[in-house]
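quick one before i forget lol
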Amino acid sequence: MTFLARAMLTTFLVSLSLGALGCATSGMLGKLKPGSAEYLYQSGLLDLEDGLYPEAIKSFSVIKSKFPYSVLARLADLRISDTYFSQGKYSDAIGSYRRFLKYNPDHREAPYALFQIGESHYERVPGDWWFLPPAAEKDQGKVKLAISAYQDLVAQHASGPYADLGRERLRLCRRKLADHELYVARFYFKRKHFKAAAGRAEKLLSDFPGLGLERDALWVAARSRIATEEPTLARPLLERLTRDFPSTIEGKAAQTELEQLPAPAVAAAPEAPAESP
């Protein structure tokens, strides 16, 4: 669904009594009273879709000032937020969406506004470019902000299309954080900071299960524990590798490492109590 189609769906749902139905087209504007809230809203949508952002904001702002009690005034506020988002002014968009939610917490478009706050943070997450360091190497602060926003959405609106999208975004963001943890673990391992490498890899295993990085994290953690001469900690990691990834290079290597580890200490049997004479 395009932005314009989504925006028009919102208009359809909340303004059946306004007669502003159908697709926003230049022809439709001819059927509306110039200067009316409906006319300004449709004009603003067309300008937004065409990338005429100053014109769109002007139309939506006039609705807010001239028709403050109109149903479209609240939607105009939301569309201003969308205009900032479309311009790539994500900080402005976040502030604008938050203001909309502050004054309209129970609006039917509240889930959309919450989702868009997450999207605004997500759009600022570092990406991969061939001429720049990999995204996993960069600061993950914006990823964490996006996660917080999507979590708010899912917590407040557990069902619906935006909640479903929020959950998918959460998975993508968690994968980015997990990639970062693996990158750091490998960074420490290459520099022979084995304690730190093991700690980061084991943190990945505990905090980010089910994202497809277990094999690499187990291998880094196990080799680090072997390097620090901690066979008791290395053994369960190697055993999990051989159990969960038996046919992989890491799984086969883990089996070899297991055979070379010293046998686990066997606890001595308790002594029988001495018999009374």
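fyi The two ends are 91 Å apart (CA to CA).
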